[in-house]
Amino acid sequence: MNLPNFLTIARLFMVPCFVFCYVQGSNGTLEYGIYFAAVLFIVAALTDILDGYIARKYNQITDFGKLADPLADKMMQLAAIACLTFYGRIALWILIVYVVKELLLIIGGARLLKVFKYVVYSKWSGKVATVLLFICIVAIMIFPEISASQASWMMGVCVFFTLIALFNYMKMYANVKESRQHKNENKE
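and the corresponding structure tokens:
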């Protein structure tokens, strides 16, 4: 196992730790629990950057990493959004949009991999949406004075950029599908 894959697995294990700290902090049973959760969220984001850098720089990109890395990221993001929703910090519709978006990306990505042997890589719009989401989630967690309506407005901006990213991924899916089908037709 290489270092990038180890960091990815560590991020997967951070997800339940994050949820535990957030829930215990919200329930008042773990003093500063939400702040611990915020630190875990930040560490997970930093290890994501680090494992990607190491994998590219030292040519340690693996099929496991291609699949597990985005899975770890999405699990942490969805866990954070779910916690914020469950404890009334943001509106439920935000969680619904993110869950639907991730399901669409998983289905589309799995289809591209299975049918066309194409691995989906992150696009600039997805990176912008992720960075913005990261900033908003951390801000909402560490600044309790942000009201639920303000937090929902902030996350609404994230949703806007996420939908742009989803549109770009859907366009890429259609282009790959069309290109591969056209290539297969030319072979016949």
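(Above: one complete record from the training split.) The helical segments are 3-27, 33-57, 63-86, 92-116, 124-142, 148-187.
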